[in-house]
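FAQ: What does a ligand-bound record look like?

Like this one, built around fructose -6-phosphate:
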Amino acid sequence: MVSLDDPMAIRKADEHGMLEFYMRWADAARDAIQRARAIELPTELRTRKGVIRYGQPEALAIAGMGGSVIGGDILRDILQDEVSVPIEVWRDYGLPSWLGPGHMVVAISYSGNTEETLVAFSEALKRGCMVIAITSGGYLASLCRKTGVPLLEVPGGRVTRMSFPYLFFPLLVFLEGSGLARGLCDLAERAAGLLSSMAKDLGPETPTEENEAKRLASRLVGTVPLVYGFGWLKAVAYRLKTQFNENSKVPSFSNWFPPMNHHEIVGWEAEEELLRVFSVVLLRSRGEPPEIRRRIELTKEIALEKASNLLEIWARGSSKLEEAISALYIGDIASLYLAFARGVDPYRTESISALKRGMAELRIADKVEKEIEGLAIG
Ligand code: F6R
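The answer part, i.e. the structure of the complex:
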């Protein structure tokens, strides 16, 4: 167990440099934007099944699992009322039946070895979708080289979740580049600026009373975090739940307004003793619509005040993008501090590794590789 007011002890516990890398997220975001800008999409791509023509897509799908694809949900949440084509986020083998020629599929796997993503990638290519991949290597990089699918390579050697800037910011660049939206690259640069101004406030040197991430973490110790978002902070709530799971090694769950008012709120009628295990983290925005604000305030009174802690993260910045990224940054860093305060290593995720080792016996990645080799020309 580490005292959050002991920066030396925090640095020692941060054995794999996760927190240290979070302090440099602004640079990672800028690097990611630059790398994505350097990718030139082909006008067409030939496979043994035919010619795939690249151009302005009529739909966008982002395929991947876990920390690789969460940026897709965030993108959809902040842009769905501005972009005129559907944005689908796909976390499974295969692809939805309606995707085909004229649709763009961005396959993202940080390791490049996630079997569900490899199957989706192969399916997208077979169906004639405009495919783009983002990865640090593995099978996915090698399949792109064999087929000529445009590939954005990102720096490897880290875990997916800490590489979020490399997996999210390029999506904004691709969306603008494909003609579906304007001004996203500028917004992305501004969000990077916000990350840079927030880093010090949330860093290990800033004491708990002035450090929002440390304050959150210290309240969450010994409880199950329930994170609630809304609208453009919906996927951020889910992201924080996954960070409490993977970094802090605790059960954690998320939901959003308004749906939580139509079922989950009733669960708060349970005995106080049972509810005491939960801490609530509400994601708030100064620009939240009045009906959402009213729902949140009513829900606090009717239900959430029974939780062990009722905490709020107020998003910062002046666009939906900045708000989403700032709330995510605070919550992600809080999940690291919670790991240190609990005396656990935020980096290792043994259960995921064991599961992946067990699944590897089915050799799905090798099967996909053979399929792709059959599709590739040359
Ligand atoms: C996050 C994490 C998992 C992976 C997921 C997919 O840090 O470890 O959520 O993101 O298992 O693996 P990748 O991202 O390599 O495709």
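Follow-up question: can I read anything off the structure? Yes, for example: The pocket of fructose -6-phosphate is lined by residues 64-68, 109-111, 114, 117, 159-161, 246, 349, 352 (CB under 6 Å).
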